[in-house]
Specification:
The chain has about 250 residues and is mainly beta. The protein has one helix at about 15-25, and strands at about 5, 45-65, 70, 80-95, 95-105, 125-135, 135-145, 150-155, 170-180, 190-200, 205-215, 220, 225-240. The protein is about 5% helix and about 55% strand.
Length: about 250
């Protein structure tokens, strides 16, 4: 059964207005940020930047101040684009254990910041530790921000072994929780989980992630409209600069 939520005394919105609200409200920076660091650790600095088209799925819809908030009809979708950034440092011990950490943005919706939280919730710190060899790795690490925390885990294979342009295919999972959990239908500070797959070839990576909020929906506001969803498909394309890509002094050879 389709549910709806209204604001004021407005009329029921049309299909065209629902789609327009979803499209408009999706075009903002600071939605959900997928995992933004390499799975493999290298010696030296690491920096990533990605553009992420976002498709709303599951329960989703659009809102305005005149017609209220209405769930989308089956087959309707909302689309947005986000810019994501991350930077840090890595160290490999005995060619086997990798240690890496840094910061990323935006984190306020990934870690489910409460509505009205200040700019400090835009950033979060991440850590990553691996056991790795030239053709395989497993890793795990935390994320900690002002609004919540998460645990990430993943694995990757590099069938061709070492090489600057050797393809590496990985999978990862993430469970995030806010410091304070409030189960509310709209903008609730509730847990969320994410699973993804990542392909990296040299400095270029492509990544797909499926994100789902465990209760209610997230509402993303832009001007006098908004779009809400409990599920997102995040398709990222970006650049990942690590280790020796910054200079020979980080080669580690």
């Amino acid at each position: 059964m389709r549910r709806s939520r209204r604001i004021g005394d407005g009329r029921r919105t049309t299909t065209t207005h629902r789609i327009a609200a979803s499209l408009a409200a999706g075009l903002l920076a600071g939605c959900v940020t997928p995992m933004m660091h390499p799975l493999r650790v290298e010696n030296g600095p690491v920096a990533e930047a990605a553009i992420t088209p976002i498709v709303f799925g599951g329960r989703h819809g659009g809102c305005d101040n005149f017609q209220g908030c209405i769930d989308a009809e089956p087959g309707e979708s909302g689309l947005g684009f986000d810019l994501h950034l991350s930077g840090g440092w890595g160290t490999v011990l005995a060619d086997t254990v990798g240690l890496m950490g840094g910061v990323y943005l935006f984190a306020q919706d990934t870690l489910r910041a409460a509505p009205g939280t200040g700019l400090y919730s835009f950033f979060a710190a991440w850590g990553w530790i691996t056991v790795q060899c030239p053709w395989f790795l497993v890793g795990v690490g935390p994320e900690v921000g002002a609004s919540g925390y998460a645990l990430d885990a993943g694995a990757a294979v590099r069938p061709m072994g070492d090489g600057d342009w050797s393809p590496e295919l990985g999978v990862y999972g993430r469970l995030g929780r806010p410091w304070r959990v409030a189960y509310r239908e709209f903008n609730g500070t509730v847990p969320a989980w994410e699973v993804g797959v990542r392909l990296q070839i040299g400095p270029v990576f492509a990544q797909y992630a499926y994100w789902h909020q465990t209760a209610g929906v997230s509402d993303f506001t832009i001007y006098e409209t908004s779009a809400y969803t409990d599920t997102m498909h995040l398709i990222s394309v970006g650049a990942s600069l690590t280790g020796a890509m910054f200079g020979d002094e980080f080669d580690g050879a």
